[in-house]
Design goal:
With 208 residues, this protein is mostly beta strands. Helix content is 9%, strand content 52%. The protein is built from two helices and twelve strands; from the N terminus they run H-E-E-E-E-E-E-E-H-E-E-E-E-E. The chain is elongated and about 50 Å long.
């Protein structure tokens, strides 16, 4: 062991400093509750169409609960509930198809949900958020990579922070399996879907 120490110590000192993952159930006495400012936020997705371009859609109705100590990214806890019928891809006919049983089956499964389980800090402002995503009653673990900007003082008062996070899922794993082949043999809709979160949030005042 004594012979190994001179070799181990330099290696440990050279290793990157990464905060350990924190369990979502841990209580952080310094964490505050933040409310999402929907006028400066969006929950969106992108999926490749015909293998060449991407279709983007946003969800207009959602609830997000955030708890965070802005000085400690690993304290972040997040839950979200999204009304899938509020989807807007810019084309009404396409939105109707996305709400149908071919995709979200909005009447049977009106919401998709996310609940964080751990956070890993990867640099001063970046992190990996791990959590359980549920679509059509199918729950899978997903990893979102993002960054935290702030805190800053808002123009109307209150402390604000912003999160940008992205992740990629396989839609077929959640039961969204519809597809068609083109005449050339390609697929119309890709299986991989990019999740895009852009959230600005304001700290709730105690007693307000």
């Amino acid at each position: 062991m004594k012979r190994l120490l001179p070799l181990l110590i330099p290696a440990l000192l050279a290793a990157p400093i990464v905060a350990p993952a924190s369990a979502a159930g841990d209580n952080d006495p310094n964490a505050s509750t933040f409310s999402v400012d929907k006028s400066h936020s969006r929950i969106a997705f992108q999926v490749r169409h015909l293998g060449i371009s991407k279709v983007t859609g946003v969800f207009g109705e959602y609830d997000v609960d955030l708890s965070l100590d802005p000085a400690d990214i690993t304290s972040l806890k997040a839950t979200a509930k999204v009304n899938v019928a509020s989807i807007d891809s810019g084309v009404e006919k396409r939105d109707g198809h996305l709400k149908s049983d071919d995709f979200f089956s909005a009447e049977t499964y009106p919401h998709m949900t996310f609940e964080s389980t751990s956070v890993r800090q990867t640099s001063d402002q970046t992190f990996e958020l791990v959590g359980d995503l549920t679509i059509r009653d199918v729950t899978k673990e997903v990893v979102l990579t993002g960054d935290l900007v702030g805190p800053v003082a808002g123009p109307m008062g209150g402390t604000r922070v912003a999160f940008d996070a992205k992740g990629t899922i396989s839609r077929s794993e959640f039961g969204l399996t519809w597809n068609r082949l083109t005449e050339a043999g390609g697929i119309i809709v890709a299986d991989e879907v990019d999740i895009i979160l852009e959230l600005q949030a304001v700290e709730e005042q105690v007693g307000s």
